Amino acid sequence: MKRIGIMGGTFNPIHKGHLALAKAAQKEFALDEIIFIPSGNPPHKAAAGVIDKELRLEMVKLAIWGKRKYSVSRIELDRPGFSYAVDTFRALKKKYGSRAKLFFIMGLDSINELLDWKKPLELFKLCSFIVFPRQKEDISSSQIRTKIRAGRPVGRVVPKRVEAFIKQKGLYK
C-alpha cells in the first residue's frame, strides 16, 4: 500500500518551512510521496491578501522542482467555490481507494482549528494526521510578505527559484 502525504495550504508564498515539514514527515512516517495542494478559495483567509492561484501554483512547482517524490495537484484550484479539506480528501480517497493510505501533514496551529472546519469528523475517517509543533524561529508567509514590502531579502526563507519568481513578477509589493 502506497503511503501518500498531503501538504495543503495557501502557499502565499511557499517557503522553506513548508518544505522542511514535508521532508520531516516523509522521513519520519516512511511516506512514498508528498503531494502539495495549493488551496483554490480558502474559506478562512481574506481573499484580498491572497495572490492569484496560478502564481501560487507556479511557486509551488518551482519550490519542489527536482524533488522526485514531490508533486503538485490542481485539485482545489480547479474546483469552484470554497476549498474544503474534506472535499479534497473525498476526491483523493476516490482516486486512490484502498491502494493508498493518506496522511494530512499540518502544523499544530491548523489542528487546533480543525473542529471549526467543514465536517471535521469525516476528515478523520478519510486520512491520518501528521502534526508538527511550531518552531521557535517560525517562518510564516505573512512575515515573508511583510519583508518583501519593506524591500528586505527573503532568500534565507524561500527557495531561490521562488525568490527569483517573486522578484520577476513584482509580487507582494
Keywords:
173 residues; alpha/beta; Rossmann fold; five-stranded parallel beta sheet; 7 helices; 40% helix; globular
Strand order, sheet with most strands:
3-2-1-4-5
For the termini, the CA-CA separation is 45 Å
- Number of domain units: 1
How large is the count of helical segments?
7
How many E strands? 5
Q: What is CATH's topology name?
A: Rossmann fold
Order of helices and strands: EHEHEHEHHEHH
The general outline is globular
How much β-strand is present in the residues? Answer: 15-25%
Looking at CATH, the homologous superfamily is HUPs
Poorly predicted residue ranges: none
- C-alpha-based Rg, rounded: 16 Å
Mean pLDDT: 92
Main sheet attributes: strand count, strand direction, barrel closure: 5 strands, parallel
Structural class estimated from helices and strands: alpha/beta
CATH class: Alpha Beta
CATH level-two architecture: 3-Layer(aba) Sandwich
Helix amount: 25-40%
Please characterize this protein's 3D structure.
With 173 residues, this protein is α/β, with parallel strands linked by helices. The chain has one domain: HUPs (Rossmann fold). The protein has seven helices and five strands. The protein has helices spanning 16-28, 53-64, 85-96, 108-113, 120-126, 141-149, 160-169, and strands spanning 2-9, 33-38, 70-72, 100-107, 128-132. Strands 3-2-1-4-5 form a five-stranded parallel sheet, sandwiched between helices. Helix 2 runs antiparallel to helix 7 (160-169) and helix 3 packs parallel to helix 5 (120-126). The longest helix has 13 residues, at 16-28. The chain is globular, with a radius of gyration of 16 Å.
